[in-house]
Amino acid sequence: MTDVIKLTAAETAARITNGDLTAEAVTEAHLARIDAVDEKVHAFLHVDREGALAQARAVDAQRAAGEPLGPLAGVPLALKDIFTTKGIPTTCGSKILEGWIPPYDATVTRKLKEAGVVILGKTNMDEFAMGSSTENSAYGPTGNPWDLTRIPGGSGGGSAAALASYQAPLAIGTDTGGSIRQPAAVTATVGVKPTYGGVSRYGMIAFSSSLDQGGPCARTVLDAALLHEVMAGHDPMDSTSIDAPVPAVVEAARSGNVKGMRIGVIKEFAGEGYQAGVVQRFTEAVELLRELGAQVVELSCPSFSYALPAYYLIAPSECSSNLARFDAMRYGLRAGDDGTRSAEEVTALTREAGFGPEVKRRIILGTYALSSGYYDAYYGSAQKVRTLITRDFQRAFEQVDVIVSPTTPTTAFPIGERTDDPMAMYLADLCTIPANLAGNAAMSLPCGLAPEDGLPVGLQIVAPALKDDRLYRVGAAVEAAFVTKWGHPLLEEAPQL
User: What HAMAP family does the annotation carry (predicted)?
Assistant: First the structure.
């Protein structure tokens, strides 16, 4: 069944629908792959073997009964461990939720099940999605399948690594400051941050409520579009959900024509801190877009220079508020409750034992920024910068259809290299953060290997809010041109595990 795990999600679904494969056989093949390689990769925190096989058998029964199947029915998927999943553990990569089994499904989880997508299990992540490397997981880091000594990106490194190691053809991540796109870039996979509000956040455990967004992860642009269509849409259970039709992302992914499109290149996304090989591959991708008939326009968005500091005031402030619910009184870990301590003491001991260093750092920073006397100087000022960034995007999109940039300034760095330097770690999200602050749609897809280290480089595409289809139109065109140029998908060059 080796060939089965190399199929795209679209190919797998088609072969299940026409009877060439059963969903159960496909699921068994991926479970066998997990057994074979995940001890080295550590992409999964929990594998739901029995549940996955039961879902697969249900799809096969539907087909046998002649019932219509959805476009991804029977296709296995790896789900980031931040979405509540009824009956199986959801930990957010944190000790404070170790062993917690939700009594309900997140909206995204429910939609996947209704579509017949087979959920293999929950993937590793930086604790509460706070990190750029998946080293902040309480359950240990995930390795990058291209080089297991290097990070797979973060916070959704487990989902990206599961794709790159052929443990699943589809995955879901969340993107607060780049946590879908950055892992996609360093693993040569495709990751999409939909327009903020385009995918329901109900049941997605909150880090920073005005920034968090779930999105599809895949190995091809079309697969990402098919998953996007399944998981997106208005949800009355989420007050930030947009009541608007889902953009025609699948149609756009199948067209892949950029002739006549205006592509913006932002001058602020260059300079010091960018690896030479990353800049080289990005420059080649821009030239490729010209060859495909697009018009390239150079732009300046001066407020983007302030995106990183603004983000690291807004996100920790919202995290400080959201994580206050983990108080040892209702669910999750409870430490020090021996009958002699007050509720406040138990809460303090539980948070000390349950939260990791990065989560504590951000809670402290956010609490300080929101405190009396500092709110206007820090959080308030950061929100004003956010408005300036949004206006820069608005002006840019008056001149161009999409913006392109490197996804990350560097390729995957070695595990442990930046753990003692938070600022160096935060710089990994330099290019991705502006789109989160403005709520725009954004995608990362592979654009080659850096000549210095032979590791993947990602191309980022950013589109205006509710114009997610433009990402897939441009992404599909670039992907097809690169595959023709290389003679095969880039991921085929990854070392075999």
Answer: GatA
Residue 441: give the domain boundaries. Answer: 2-303+387-493
- Catalytic residue flag (residue 80): yes
CA–CA separation, 50 and 176 (whole Å): 32
Q: Can you read off the two tokens belonging to residue 481?
A: 């041109």
For the chain, what is the radius of gyration of the CA atoms?
21
Please check whether residue 111 is in contact with residue 460, taking contact to mean a CB–CB distance below 8 angstroms: no
Lookup: tokens for 46 = 């929990």
Q: Tell me, what CATH number does 400's domain have? A: 3.90.1300.10
Q: Encode 385-409: b = buried (16+ Cβ within 10 Å), e = exposed.
A: bbebbbebbeebbeebbbbbbbbbb
Query: Phi/psi of residue 235, each to 5°?
Result: -135, 115
Q: Which position among 159, 179, 317, 320 bears the catalytic label?
A: 179
Whether 444 is catalytic is: no
Q: Identify whether 337 is part of a domain.
A: no
Give which of 219, 222, 198 is closest to 77, Cα–Cα. Answer: 219
Quick check: is 94 catalytic? no
d(C-alpha 474, C-alpha 221), whole Å: 10
> Active-site residue among 94, 133, 137, 155?
155
Strand partners, 174: 214
pLDDT (0 to 100) of residue 275 = 97
Q: Do the domain assignments include residue 370?
A: no
pLDDT in tens, 348-365: 999 999 999 999 999 999
Q: What is the pLDDT of residues 31-48, one digit of tens each?
A: 999 999 999 999 999 999
